[in-house]
Amino acid sequence: MKAKRLLIPGPVPLEGRIAEELAKPAVPHYGKQWVEAYRETEGLLKKLFRMKDSRVYPLAGPGHVGLEAVVTTLLRPEDKALVIDNGFFGRRLREMLDAHGIEAFSIHSRWGSPPDMRRVEEVLSSRYIRALFAVHSETSTGMINPLRELGSLAHEYGSLFVVDAVSSLGGLDLPCDDWRVDACVGASQKCLGAAPGIAPAAVRSSILEGVDPSEVKAWYFNLLTWDRYSDEWGNWHPQPTTISTNVFAAFKVALEAVFEEGLDRRVERHKTVGRAYREAMRSMEFRTVAQEEDCSDTVTCVRPPTGFDAVELQKRLGEDFGILVAGGIGELKGEVLRIGHMGPTANLQDLLSVVEALGSILKESKDVDVKSALEVATSMSKGFFD
Ligand SMILES: Cc1ncc(COP(=O)(O)O)c(C=O)c1O
Questions:
Q1: What is the distance in A from the centroid of ligand 1 to the CA of 166?
Q2: Minimal-distance CA residue to ligand 1 atom 8
């Protein structure tokens, strides 16, 4: 069976040397060479998070491992937290805080619409909130949250600012220092273009220094454990446990590729492709869930034109065109298509094949100008991919 083109919002297809690295013979997760690779990876992560005074962690596991490690290390059950809930992954953060017995408040807004900043300020100002949690790119709705404004409000009221950057790290602009992000977590399998299995995290050092180790009721999910191994076993085994060495090595190659391309250029590539996707899709009467100014450039989340069914379109794309996109989750289940353009899939070729395939399905029962949609996509990417 011919492999399908994977255009879901992560994991992304593994390309060239990243895939090759993954297939190499296994190496030990300790020893001189391993330590060198581990330290180099930490150096690359420092550059990626743009958080100067920080400790970075290439945690082994999915993105949630990083998020949960931040929660268990920085918050206690008696703490209060505030969560921006305008999508599936914002709600997940709330679920996680609830599971740890932390008193959490949510700022709800319609999925795909930005938070009401007055409500955020009301909650932050009326009680001491240890941390404000927000998702950067909400993969369930295709929108971005206003991190700069949220970070500034959190700091005004003495709260930490924790960001889920799982579907934005390495794809969207994310200057953690400028936006006053105190803890940030990404994932290997999305904009970074690596295999699933590493959750890169960064936490401001001064915050970690203020944590009382005896109060952290976790071991693996305790970033102080990672710090301890980095210090005490740093010359041979700098992390507390085994890490899948191949996944890690491929992750390092992917990070190197990010900086070879250049972070700014990579962000620009995602911006170009994101805008072109949205305009081309709108020209065929798809509607984005979020307003244009709030849309994420790493995932396009659209409702189909009137009379078309999202689930059916998703199925046809897979069966007839070999293109795998995602459907809606949570409140948007069955209502939308979600197309990932992250890392290797943020390119003009994939965009044109999606537009062409969707256009030809619509054309069976609707008058659609597919040629003009393709022209929109091409002209909006002009100058970048020529
Ligand atoms: C914004 C966001 N947060 C968290 C996650 C969870 O990541 P993981 O499945 O790697 O734990 C995802 C996965 O799609 C996501 O998009």
A1: 5
A2: 63
Same domain, 25 and 142: yes
Task: Choose one of 260, 278, 298: the last residue of a domain.
Answer: 260
Domain that residue 81 falls in: 16-260
Q: Are 203 and 347 in the same domain? A: no
- Please write the tens of the pLDDT for every residue from 167-207: 999 999 999 999 999 999 999 999 999 999 999 999 999 99
Within 6 A (CB) of ligand 1 lie: 10, 62-64, 89, 135, 139, 164, 166-167, 187
- Could you tell me what percent of the chain has a pLDDT over 70? 100
List, for residues 234-275, the tens digit of each pLDDT value.
999 999 999 999 999 999 999 999 999 999 999 999 999 999
Tokens of 21: 């690295």
CATH number of 199's domain: 3.40.640.10
Q: What Å distances lie between residue 149 and 76, 215, 295, CA to CA?
A: 26, 31, 16
Q: What are φ and ψ of residue 288, in 5° steps?
A: -70, 145
Retrieve residue 118's tokens. 């007055």
Q: Beta partners for 203? A: 55, 183
CB neighbours of 358 closer than 8 A, spacing ≥ 6? Answer: 281, 284, 286, 313, 317
Interatomic CA distance for residues 189 and 199, integer angstroms: 9
For residues 249 and 277, membership in a common domain is answered with: no
Ligand 1 pocket test, pick from 6, 8, 59, 64 with the greatest ligand atom count within 8 Å of Cβ, gives: 64
CA-to-CA distance for 297 and 278, rounded, in angstroms? 9
Instruction: Quick: pLDDT tens for 353-382.
Output: 999 999 999 999 999 999 999 999 999 998
280/249 same-domain check: no
Q: Contact at 8 Å (CB) between 213 and 60?
A: no
Cα angle 91-92-94, degrees, rounded to a multiple of 5: 65
Contact 164, 133 (CB under 8 A): yes
- DSSP reduced 3-state for 25: coil
